[in-house]
Write a structure and sequence with these properties.
Layout lengths: L12 H12 L9 H13 L3 E7 L2 E8 L9 E6 L11 E4 L2 E4 L7 H19 L7 E6 L7 H4 L10 E7 L5 E6 L1 E10 L3 E2 L10 H11 L3 E4 L2 E10 L5 E2 L2 E10 L2 H21 L3 E10 L2 E2 L5 H12 L5 E4 L5 H7 L3 E6 L2 E2 L7 E3 H17 L5
Parallel strand pairs: 3-6, 3-7, 7-18, 8-17
Antiparallel strand pairs: 1-2, 2-6, 4-5, 5-20, 8-16, 8-18, 9-14, 9-15, 10-13, 11-12, 12-14, 19-20
Helix pairs in contact: 1-3, 3-9, 5-6, 7-9
Length: 378
Amino acid sequence: MLKAMRKELIINRKRLVSTFIDLININSPSFEEDLLGKHLEKLFRNLDFRVTRQRFDRTFNIIASKKGSLKSVRPLLLSGHMDTIEPTEGIRYAIKGKVIRSIGETVLGADDKSAIAQILEAMTVMKEQDIAHGDIEVVITSAEEKGLIGAKNLDFKKIRSRHALVLDSGGPVGRIVVAAPTQISYELRVVGRPAHAGIEPEKGISAIRVASEIIAAVPDGRIDEVTTANIGIIRGGTATNVVPKEVMVKGEVRSHEPATLRAIRDDIFDKAMSMAKNRGAKVHIKAQEEYRAFRISGSEPFLAFMDSIFLDARIKPEHTATGGGSDANIFNQHGIVTLNLSTGMQKVHSHDEFIHIDDLVNGSIIVAAAVRDFADFK
């Protein structure tokens, strides 16, 4: 499709802001997305999408698809997630100049409702301006904040697209996440021996003390430029007059490098087993891969295509690696070449969360332009 023949994309700024505000006013913490889901199903049906709700376990995904007028164009997948971290109940916000921000004791919910607003506005523009495009697939996942649960349970047999844009990264619009780590979560159950702490403490083996020694000895924090380790949960003990029998320790390791990840994981587990044995305690270890690393090659044609979309919109693309996981990890793991784009959300997961309205607009332009110009992608 020649650039000279492309229709100009006219974003309705007022409507876009209204859509975003409507979305953040619907409380949707992880596993409680039903009300928002019903709202989104209605909106996508109004845009002529075929909408299905894929249910599983405690929640669901929304899968929407729309046939395009350009039959020879490959389908393109757009995705965001509908859940937010808490607290979002009774959300309070302010629009000051060109910025929407939280002003209360809650997050704003731009993570990831800015993505949904941008996708909805882009699809509305495509429809009302009668812009030719290929087939479009939209997946709005649930419980992303609880470990990418929606994406992990997505029925990929229903997805035809081999290329996807996930909108779930922070910073100004223009950032493209091209690499993300593998995360391994683990649980150490340290088992000692209980005894009365005031009468015969010498007969006990304190699981808390053993666990604390393990925690002090294992790698923690920033290991190198692409590797981190953290222990985030400790739970155990029953009373101050009982030498504690059992302690649960939960942690994680992330790395872009598989060999480094395995080495840090093994070091933690080896130290835990050795130190527990030396103190006469036991340790039971459980571990699982939460998501797998991806790295998009600089020569990837889809990356070059999206760079051109940003440049045509006079936005400089910035390729970046992240230490966090997203649905893009899962999509890439399933063979869908996926880029994670920034929506413009800032200071996410905090009470200071905000987004520039210009970024909301720019994100919508990028989504619409990518769908419009995907006919040029070879």
